[in-house]
Design a protein that fits this description.
Layout (H helix, E strand, L loop, with lengths): L20 H8 L3 E5 L2 E4 L1 H20 L3 E2 L5 E3 H7 L1 H4 L5 E4 L5 E4 L4 H11 L8 E10 L14 E11 L2 H22 L3 E5 L10 E7 L5 E6 L5 E3 L20 E4 L6 H8 L7 E8 L2 E8 L6 H8 L4 E3 L2 H8 L16 E5 L8 E7 L2 E6 L1 H4 L4 E3 L17 E16 L1 H6 L2 E3 L5 E3 L1 E8 H11 L1 E2 L2 E2 L10 E5 L5 H16 L4 E4 L5 H11 L3 E5 L7 E6 L5 E5 L3 H9 L1
Parallel strand pairs: 3-7, 15-17, 17-20, 27-28, 27-29
Antiparallel strand pairs: 1-2, 4-6, 5-6, 7-8, 8-24, 9-10, 10-21, 11-12, 11-21, 13-19, 14-15, 14-16, 18-19, 21-24, 22-23, 25-26, 29-30, 30-31
Helix pairs in contact: 1-12, 2-6, 2-12
Bound molecules: ligand 9G3.
């Protein structure tokens, strides 16, 4: 491609509202442009990178027997009414009407569409297992689109759906997809982890998220420093291996703690460490109230609470509900003499403490010398707290560390959820009608492109790994007014292209400084510069990522590049 004939609008300055590195560089290097909040255009270089990533995805999907399809972005609301998600989803679901005032959605995902196709076209176990995938635009009306392609309102996803007549068959596809995802993200050049995750509203039990490590990631990963254990912090399990206190139990005593609201204030007022106090939070879980008790230095993990209670919804009770039920506000809650209808659930760490403090369910009054097994013996115990750095890894090997990650992929075991909702039945080998079993698997393709830039850039611009770079070679002629330079440039452009290299040719009438700066921004792995030594047939070859450069005679160029790129 000749730069004089394409569109690569580089920018000298960093756009003010671009915080994430990938957002800044993709804008400055002319890969994308924002149309409006959360919606982007991919310009020629951006489109080429997308195609490289999509090609790797397609190769790996086809290798595991997935069949590519293209499903409509425009989906009938009727399907979403059948699945129950028309009412369940909030403002994130893009809805619209056609000229006949019929309801539609712009697809944020395609479980309903796929299940409706299977319902109509797959009636026998002989057709199973079957995996379909597409690479297609998705629409989600994010409340706060941010970080450019990392969280857009219109983005490109590869979404796959596997259909089975048994859970063993689903497990096989899940493993196949899991391995294919590992190959894809490795080939794309990302430093990533597959982490145990929460299936959220999707139902089903097993799910893993693929996380590209990056400071700008919105997810926190808990991983072991001595094994391959890794989990989204929402799911990371905490072992019940606490040292039981040997203190003898002291008599329960009430103490006044006027105007002490937070755990810290109470601990300081009563002169004890944070972990020598108990934190009580009242939750509304589906239609009942639950009081959770954790050590003062731990945080309740609501996802774990929801899983433990197998509940649909978990939310903190309002202060008014708390006062009405327990007789005190947030700062003075406790498990002692709580009303019988309030279920008390403690994190495992609570069972090991002795002579601690907790609220007395009277405003500004606390208990001290609280001993859980004596003072609230009916409590149940569970793994309720968020894991913390330094905790032992749940697999018993190593210690937990945290890292930020960008979720670039997710694999789910859906089970029969959608088939039952939409009536996708098949006849099994006994002639009995059964609901199909499904798995679903997503990769954020445009988000992956941004994740690569997050991991591959320096202070001058992008440093693409060769396998997803928009071109392999950036050919610069420094002074196109000089015949010998322009002629050698044209000759090399033709020669390298004929040799099968993807070449971006900077044939513009621009100063050398502009060309070098743009080349650093754009980040193509290998730069060939035709300059003063053109008359001797000598060009400069520079590796963008490392800065190393050599002079090379034009006759050796194809071999030099072949060694580097093939
Ligand atoms: C919606 C809206 C947003 C959503 C969903 C539905 C996320 C929704 C989860 C999934 C699950 C898998 C297939 C590919 C892999 C991920 N955000 N999810 O279902 F209506 Cl507005 O999309 N789908």
């Amino acid at each position: 491609m000749r730069q004089s004939k394409t569109l690569i609008p580089t920018m000298k300055e960093t756009p003010a509202d671009a915080e994430a590195a990938s957002h800044q560089w993709l804008l400055r290097a002319g890969y994308i442009r924002q149309n409006f909040s959360g919606v982007y255009s991919f310009l020629p270089l951006g489109k080429r990178v997308l195609q490289k990533i999509e090609a790797i995805v397609r190769e790996e999907m086809d290798k595991i027997g997935a069949n590519e399809v293209l499903l409509p972005a425009l989906q009938s609301a009727d399907l979403w009414r059948e699945s129950g998600r028309w009412d369940k989803m909030g403002p994130e679901l893009m809805r619209l009407n056609d000229r006949h005032e019929r309801d539609f959605v712009l697809g944020p995902t395609h479980e309903e569409v796929v299940t409706s196709i299977i319902r109509d076209e797959v009636k026998s176990y002989k057709k199973l297992p079957l995996t379909l995938y597409q690479i297609q635009t998705k629409f989600r009306d994010e409340r706060r689109p941010r970080f450019g392609l990392l969280r857009g309102r219109e983005f490109i996803m590869k979404d796959a759906y596997s259909i089975h007549d048994s859970f063993e068959s689903l497990d096989q596809s899940y493993q196949d997809m899991y391995q294919a995802y590992s190959r894809i993200f490795t080939r794309v050049g990302l430093d990533f982890r597959a982490v145990i995750a929460d299936s959220g509203a999707m139902g089903g039990k097993d799910t893993h998220e693929f996380m590209a490590l990056s400071k700008v990631g919105e997810d926190t990963i808990a991983f072991s420093d001595q094994s391959d254990y890794a989990a989204n912090i929402e799911m990371a399990e905490v072992l019940d291996i606490y040292q039981q206190s040997t203190e003898s139990m002291l008599p329960l005593t009430k103490v006044d703690t006027p105007n002490q609201k937070t755990m810290k204030e109470v601990a300081d007022y009563l002169g004890h460490r944070l972990e020598e106090g108990l934190k009580s939070l009242l939750f509304k879980v589906d239609d009942r109230f639950v009081l959770t008790i954790t050590r003062g230095d731990h945080e309740v993990n609501e996802i774990k609470l929801r899983h433990f209670l197998q509940a649909e919804s978990v939310e903190l009770a309002t202060e008014q509900e708390t006062i009405d039920l327990l007789g005190a506000g947030f700062g003075s809650l406790g498990p002692i003499n709580a009303p019988d209808q309030v279920e008390i659930i403690c994190d495992y760490a609570v069972r090991a403490v002795a002579n601690v403090t907790c609220g007395a369910n009277e405003q500004g009054v606390h208990y001290k010398n609280v001993n859980p097994t004596r003072d609230f013996p009916t409590a149940t115990y569970a793994d309720l707290r968020f894991i913390q750095e330094g905790d032992p890894s749940p697999d018993g090997r190593g210690t937990i560390r945290f890292a930020e990650g960008i979720e670039i992929g997710q694999v789910f075991k859906l089970g029969k959820h959608y088939a039952e909702k939409l009536g996708a039945q098949y006849l099994n080998d006994q002639g009995k009608s059964e609901a199909v079993i499904m798995g679903c698997y997503g990769i954020g393709v445009s988000r992956t492109m941004a994740a690569v830039v997050e991991q591959y850039h320096d202070e001058r611009g992008i440093t693409w790994p060769a396998q997803v770079a928009p071109f392999q070679v950036h050919l610069l002629v420094l002074n196109s007014k000089k015949d010998e330079q322009r002629e050698l440039g044209d000759k090399l452009y033709e020669e390298l292209s004929n040799a099968g290299f993807e070449v971006l040719y900077d044939d513009r009438h621009e100063r050398a400084g502009v060309k070098f700066a743009d080349s650093d921004l754009i980040g193509i792995p290998h730069r060939i510069t035709v300059g003063k030594l053109a008359s001797e047939g000598i060009v400069e070859c520079k590796v963008r990522a490392t800065g190393e450069q050599i002079e090379c005679h034009q006759s050796k160029l194809v071999d030099y590049l072949s060694d580097l790129l093939k």
